[in-house]
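job 3f2a | input accepted
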Amino acid sequence: MIATTFVDNSRIMANGQIIIPKAVREALGVSSGDRVTFIAQGNNVRIANSAVYAMQQLQQDMAGEAESAGLISEDDVLANS
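job 3f2a | predicted structure (81 res):
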């Protein structure tokens, strides 16, 4: 998560490309060739590092699964492996 708030502008090119400002790229930990995810919510769009976003989604999707499977402690996990 970015600890600092950034406000910057970028222009949409004729082919739909935008340039992500350097400070934002650095804060997201992305560089040339990396993938970013656009999350549209109402009139707002968030840009996230795709790898980080995918991991966060997986964590949300898996929340509570261990408990549902009866795996409460580390010993439970080891006993079922």
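job 3f2a | The mean pLDDT is 83.
job 3f2a | closed
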